[in-house]
Amino acid sequence: MKKILVVLGGGKANGNTAQLCDAFIKGAKEAGHQTELVSLRELQVNGCLGCNACRYEKPCIQKDDFASLIPKIKAADLIVFASPLYFWTFSAKLKAFIERFYCIAQKDENPPFGRYEKYPIKDCALLMTSADHFFWTFEQAVSYYRFTLVRYIGFHDRGMLLAGGCGSTNGPAQIQKTDYLEKAYRFGKEIYPPEQQ
């Protein structure tokens, strides 16, 4: 059994991304994993100020809800980053959440090239939705995910589900008319093969 933290970075309460998360969680629970959903639309998580006060696991000077999320981040085996596509990348809320990881980084006496600190070793996955469904729709978001979370922070990628073509940005959620909810369910159920559980 794995501890899975799903972080929903904005969107509507029952929008496309929220429904995608619910389907993923249903599959993960059926596979026996312990899951928790954190919706950033219900919390105040500010972006990093770049003040460096928190360097190497010292508390952030900002008194918002991020401090309450640190134990959840540290306890999780897998963090699932979920976001609607906003201006071709993650939502500002999810980006702010990732920026604040700085305060959980530890000093690394011998850092790899291009990295200045070390982070807890976690698995990660990406769930995203969008109205558009062009071949390049998720290119910027996937690049950020792979560079920031996988290559720089050092999380281990367990995969991604990019749900494009989920209806107009001006209308209600349309993801239920696609096969993405079934794909998300299977993704959650199969994200860890039995031998890795």
Descriptive overview:
The protein is of the alpha/beta class and 197 residues long. It is 29% helix and 19% strand. It has 5 helices and 7 strands. The strands form 2 sheets. A 5-stranded parallel beta sheet has the order 2-1-3-6-7, with helices on both faces. A two-stranded antiparallel sheet has the order 4-5. Helix 1 (16-30) packs parallel to helix 5. It is globular and about 50 Å long. It starts with a strand and ends in a 7-residue tail after the last helix. The mean pLDDT is 93.
Quick description:
The chain has five helices and seven strands, in the order βαβαβαβββαβα. It has 197 residues and is α/β, with parallel strands linked by helices.
Number of helices: 5
Distance between the ends:
5 Å
> Taking strands numbered 1, 2, ... along the chain, how are they ordered across the largest sheet?
2-1-3-6-7
Helix residue percentage: 25-40%
Give average pLDDT, whole number: 93
Flag low-confidence runs: none
> From N to C, what is the helix and strand string?
EHEHEHEEEHEH
Q: Report the biggest beta sheet as strand number plus sense, adding barrel if it closes.
A: 5 strands, parallel
**What is the C-alpha radius of gyration, as a whole number of Å?**
17 Å
Tell me the overall shape: globular
Count of beta strands: 7
Query: Pairing-aware structural class of the strands and helices?
Result: alpha/beta
Portion of residues in beta strands equals 15-25%
